[in-house]
Amino acid sequence: MSGLFSPGWAGSAAEEATGDLAFLQALLDAEAALTRAQAAVGLAPSEAAAAVTRAAADATRFDARGIALRAREGGNPVIPLVADLTAAVPADAAPYVHRGATSQDILDTALMLVAARTLDPLLTDLSRTERALARLASRHRDTVLPGRTLTQHAVPTTFGLKAAGWRSLVLDARDRVAGARAALPVQLGGAAGTLAAFQAYGGGEPGVPGERGVPGLVAALARELALVEPLLPWHTLRTPVADLAAALAFTAGALGKAAVDVATLSRTEIGELSEGSGGGSSAMPHKANPVRATLITAAARRAPALAATLLGSLAAEDERPAGAWHAEWEPLRDLLRLTGGAARDAAEMTEGLRVHPDVMREHLDLTGGLIVSERLVAVFTPLLGRARAKRLLGEAARRTRVEGRTLAEVLGDILADFGESLSDESASEGAAPEGADLAALAALRDPVRLSELTDPTRYTGSAGTLTDRALERR
After folding, report:
1. Residue 6 is among the residues annotated as catalytic for this protein
2. DSSP β-ladder status, 273-274 and 144-149
3. Model confidence pLDDT, tens digit, residues 61-94
């Protein structure tokens, strides 16, 4: 596969680890390891194990296309591969190729090998992304920009907190992927998950503990491949695949969150961020598109559906299923590729991300101070009472938008008129109106005080502390 329509994973470590040749090598590695494991527990001659290992060492010696076409006869590629591998070893070693195993043992084990070989560089890329985001969060701890909810300015926040949030998701993804990687098991159960054939070939009495014979065979296979020994054969107990699918889909989505934010904040009319090396256009020379963010977003859009197919295969009938297992192969490969490619692109995107604090500062002033209206509600309500405060600030917001002045300027005028009205009311009633603090209200008319109250950079709450707290996580 050339990857012509897959720029998100083309050229990535995930592509190399999940290609047809890589899968074929993983199948051969599983077969060779099984023969070595049998030799280790006395179920096969060591000479046979060595011969099978030599024959299986180079996947390019086998015709992958021919195996794929012949796989239609039995429904999976292991059957023709076993025939070709058997033909490739000396006659005295041939009986020990695939002995006692079923096709699913080999293919499931190969899937876990491919997953391991894909997840290792994926985890490296997640670490790169996490480090880049930690640097951004620390450097921009106090860089203020508009917080946005439902596409509109809400209250001020900091880019440090935003980057720390992205990093938190990346660390969540890392933990899930690392957990799935550490739990990847070998598969060995024979035809119906009882290991009966290995017993029949001379594996001793059933239930006898120890490292020799059948009881130690699965552990020996796990050691050969650096995978985990499962408690039971998992032909129709698909926890390993489901956990892997969930971890990969979560990772794609977690990286997608950062990507959609970067793409949004890179819009021409926003311009608060830009990718370090934006992509070009075939028609418009001026374009510098957020290509890394675009590719990551595409992966995040596709991953959930792929994971859903894998989770749907949990409902696998009998001791070996018809169709549920077969439905896993392509979605799992696609999910490994997509997420591995997204992790590569996320590392590149975050390491090269350019932040534009001056543009962020300009945008804080777009509404003339209305971005801190929440703060003013909290300030004025105790002084005026809820109804008066709401009326005053509603009028101030309206005039700010209509008159094109700042909220501080409008409030200064309104407070003067409002104060005189309240003073007249107080004089006529002989006391301050209920809920109104005239002295405190008069103090707020000071232009310096109003400027401070409406300064967006002075209303970021605990953003700095939250950023520091997030960066403590390792």
Report:
1. no
2. unpaired
3. 999 999 999 999 999 999 999 999 999 999 999 9
Burial of 94 (0-12, 13-18, 19+ CB in 10 A): middle
Catalytic (active site) residue 320: yes
Place of tokens 């409406």: 454
Q: Report the alpha-carbon distance of residue 120 to residue 302 in Å, rounded.
A: 22
Give the C-alpha separation, 235 to 193, whole Å: 7
CA distance 414 to 412: 6
Give the predicted TM-score (pTM) of the model: 0.91
| Single-letter amino acid code for the residue at 295 | L
3-state secondary structure of 408: helix
* CA 194/CA 408 separation, integer angstroms: 79
| Residue positions counted in the chain | 474
The active-site residue, picked from 135, 320, 401, 405, is 320
Residues 6+ apart with CB under 8 A from 165: 470
Going along 8-96, which residue ranges are E strands?
A: none
Query: Which residue is it, tokens 């809400």?
Result: 154
CA distance 26 to 30: 6
